[in-house]
Task: structure prediction
Amino acid sequence: MAQAAALVVAEPILRLRGIGRRFGGLHAVRDVDLDVARGERRAILGPNGAGKTTLFNVISGDYPPTSGTIEFLGEDVTGLPPRTRAKLGMGRTYQKSRLFLGLSVEDNLYLAVLGVKSGHMRPVIVPARDRALRERARELTAAVGLEGREATLVGSLSHGEQRQLEVGMARAANPQLMMLDEPASGLSRGERVALTDLLLKLDPAITLILIEHDMDVALRVAQRVTMMHEGRVIVEGTPDEIRANQTVHDLYLGRGFQPDE
Amino acid sequence: MTVPVSADRIVGAGALLAAILAPFYLSSYWVGTLLTQMLFLGIVAASLIFLSAYGGMVSLAQVAVYGIAGFVLGNATTNGNTKGLNLGWSPWIGIVLGIVIAVAIGLLFGALASRSVGIYFLMITLTYSVIANLFFSQVTDLSGFGGISGIRAPNVIGNVEAHQNRLYYVALVTAFGVYLLLRYLVRTPFGLTLQGVRDDPVRMASLGYNVPLHRTVAFGFASLIAAIGGILFVWWNGHVDPASIDLGATIDVLVIAVLGGLYRLEGAWIGALLFVIVNNYSQRIGFIGDRFHTLIGAIFLAIVLVSPSGMIGLWERALSLFSGRRRGPLDRNPIEVGPAEPSV
Ligand SMILES: Nc1ncnc2c1ncn2[C@@H]1O[C@H](COP(=O)(O)OP(=O)(O)O)[C@@H](O)[C@H]1O
Ligand SMILES: [Mg+2]
Result:
């Protein structure tokens, strides 16, 4: 850990200290310290149930942590609700898509753009203001490869298209920190390649944290990798270090993890 | 929407025309009693359908709010010979006061229920309905069991019994205005946000929205619509008492909304029309009180079993058969009171 901290030169955009989250007797995340630098691409790996999604939920504010602190952009956000964190510059996707199924693709993205702006309660259509929001929504529709589907109800999109939209929802507000929870899950090989390209082309100023089971996607996109198991961070390093790491091999080959400190 | 817009438009325009011309071909009993009642009950049901279809909130408090507006109007405008405060103010002040107080209480109700969803939301709003009923029964300074009588409409409407068509047209214009307003509102940022909250409140929160506040404001807005219905009801009836907002009346409006179709605004008036007609004929054959409720309950079951999305659902299905289209994603089960998702 000391070594990892030394590599992070600038003030990190995200800093977790002693983060824990319990569900009743279950310790889903325990004692996680994590520093992510501005503009970094970080992958979080780990078997099912390792606590990766729970860690995202804690960072985004969907679940408050049961212990520890979260700093974002140098500010303690541990007690802030998700909407405030979104306005500070966090954006995320969900492992199981959370989309507005009764609305069109464009309206979904419209809401994602409007979220961090003012005027949620505006009961009138003001063409001058809505045009800009609509244009941005249509731009995003094209950017995630759904051009021509603007008016389609999201409930009738295919799984792959919903996953594409899910990424668009997280990008819409131009977040400084983007967290993607298994964006490639359920995608075909071709769709995975397209997604990887999309992630590689992302504005380098955006910080990206990516949970991904697909090692090809994760290790190509990431600069650093954090490996979780049973709620803890067990290894952190560059993709090459991770590839060479025996523990990682053991876990992914299913031999189980025996801590040998 | 998968239904061809043209067919909807044509039928809608036809229905509006039929309503405008109703006084020329229907008896004054039909117009003054049944259709006027249909219009204001439809407005209250529309406030419920708005909350349910666009906000995912099935509220049982709409009749309570409608009653609050009515009681305030009664207290403010009557003059001497009845229960209540008998303030004797102008009917216009009564309207404004009735609506403002109903909306204020609606906002309070909404704020308290805004963190609950599904069956819990339903139960909390049922409590509001019971509280409002008990409040006006017990607080004899404001009403008491007998209620407030002799409530008059403004002079432009005049004596409702002598000029039945006037109140009918006022109710028709109001109902149509409410319908257009709601149709417009759901396309605005406020309305789209509300639909986002309906579909996924957790996502909305992580996009930057204040979900409970949005639910509260939507509830307050629906209270405005219900209050307008309440004002028309009291002018039509000339009288308001706690029985006007008892559990039976609360359920009646839910029945109207579900009969019509809980997911499209038009359903409110379709359900209300069916309701007042059944009510009228069941009275003629001596089916009143519990027997009426048994009858409407049986009709309710029959329609909901055939078409879970009510009469509007039947209409859409007929259209899709006719045009050979598949059933759209909107043809979902309209009463989604579970599963409760307590986060946010
Ligand atoms: N809302 C919840 N309630 C109860 N247990 C949960 C909840 N969310 C996650 N868990 C549990 O926490 C553990 C970690 O889950 P999760 O964070 O989803 O793992 P991962 O994303 O790494 O697969 C699992 O055992 C899971 O069952
Ligand atoms: Mg997960």
